[in-house]
What does this fold into?
Amino acid sequence: MIAHLLCDYTHTMAFDWDDLRYFLSVARTGRLTAAARRMGTDHATVSRRVSALERELGADLFARSPRGYSLTGAGERLLIHAENIESSAATIQNDIAGEKFSLSGAVRIGAPDGFGAFFLAPRIGELADRHPQLELQIVAMPRVFSLSKREADIAIGLERPNKGRLYSRKLTDYTLHVYAARTYLETHTPITSRQDLTDHLLIGYISELVFTPELDYLKDIGDNFVPRLSSTNLFAQLHATQAGAGLCILPDFMAHGTTDLVKVIPEQLEFVRTFWIMAHLDLRDTARIRTVIEFISEKVTENNAIFSERFGARSDG
It folds into this structure.
């Protein structure tokens, strides 16, 4: 009798563990279509699997609305357990499957556009050659990446995280200076002090769209400096500067080696920021994540000279 009751209880409490993957994908994207793309399936399958999980658990996990799917209280509680299960599965894969297996699969790297596209992209092919089973993805965008939502496996950021189960370490400091094209300086009034900058067109970020205070450089120059030409994209700022549109604060590692850009009053205006590398604490010790982190750190160390150009050459203008 007792055995029969236990069997019935086990049957009623059982559910398909695989449904948790679909639940996590919807929780992280907020939409069935986006979750389906991430899972490599169709939205009907995702909807069916999530609904099945809700029936099996006897709880509504999401509040549905035209804006998408948001977690209910029960969904929030399940999210904690589901992420722990996901992390445990990753640990099992790394510990049991062995080094060869764990160095296969996708690793997504989220990074600011300058670091991701300008510095990392030309070098990442070397890592792909070393480990042919790795699939390397670079998401180079001016934004903060959520590691807890698995928007990236590894993130490069300008601020060290102060909450969450995250591993972080300093990659490097890097310097920035005011730059102008040589042709611009030849045809505009001389610049000998920061006050002279008010007579020139400044290029910078759109203030209300700056994703981190670390990029709000102009406030460090003074209260009256506002860009008249602005963009969320650092490459747009760089190209506008090279075309002679005005002055711009640029990272030295991006201006390094260019012949058409000149530092303006570097002895008076120099900015220092820091790149941090981060990963979810549960994934840090997996071989594929550790390998990519060490590769990025290795490349930054090898090229340290281009990241810090303190007390650089004076303006030719």
Remarks:
- The first strand starts at residue 62 and ends at 65.
- The first helix runs from residue 2 to 13.
- The chain has a mean pLDDT of 86.
